[in-house]
Amino acid sequence: MSHPTRRGRARAATEQDIRRTARKLLVEQGPEAVTLRAIARELGITAPALYRYYESRDDLVENLRLDVCADLADDLAEEIAELPDDGILQLFAICKGFRRWALTHTKEFTLVFASPTGGVGSAAGSALSRVDEPFGRIFLAAAGRVLARTDIVLPSAGNVPDELRDDFTTFQESLSAVLSEADHDVPVEKLDLGVTYLMIQFWARLYGHVTLEVFGNYPIPMSKPDVLFEAMLIDLAREIGLYSG
């Protein structure tokens, strides 16, 4: 078995130092503070020296985004590992854990989930738009367990607007691959376009609530946003037949 060379180990350590410094700037000052010049200043090197490790700021930000996604997924995986093997329980624990993480890691949330295309962290986008990444995998794996083991109200594929069918067909293929790798034997009829449409609507409502809460953008003062969040989850569960209360 080959072992890393001293130079290789040194390079990996430097890359970690760069990303650790970038993460520190992100947490303390926000995404706009993550610049090559600022990182170089913190590390006591020249900005051009960073190009030996990352092709551009976007390249560095993309690696930082992946670090944040992996840490979030690890935190959620540890949390649900302590729960019974119940897809419904785990799925909603992930939803609650995502909200809790977003409210306590607002700068990371902004970088990964709220940076507009072409803006700060332009390489980021939505972490769920890349279903093969850690957060997408853990969220969709829990949803897959629900599909495989629970009788839910399956929406008709006819509900999907014709203009969106190509988009949802692509998502359907990615979803099927992720669930297969997670060893979830989901019946074919439960992975039609209607189901993928439902999953995106579910994510949109979850993400929308969390984003409004993180940035304080509710149109009215909200004294108990946690109660509204719980009500939203119950509404989602009721709509797919998981809650009858």
From TrEMBL:
Residue ranges for the DNA-binding region feature of this UniProt entry: 35-54
Database matches in Pfam families: TetR_C_33, TetR_N
Signal peptide limits: none
Single annotated GO MF: DNA-binding transcription factor activity
Keyword line: DNA-binding, Transcription, Transcription regulation
Domain of life assignment: Bacteria
Keyword Transcription regulation: yes
InterPro entries in the record: Homeodomain-like_sf, HTH-type_TetR-like_transc_reg, HTH_TetR, MT1864/Rv1816-like_C, Tet_transcr_reg_TetR-rel_C_sf
Location of the HTH tetR-type domain: 12-72
The protein's name: TetR/AcrR family transcriptional regulator
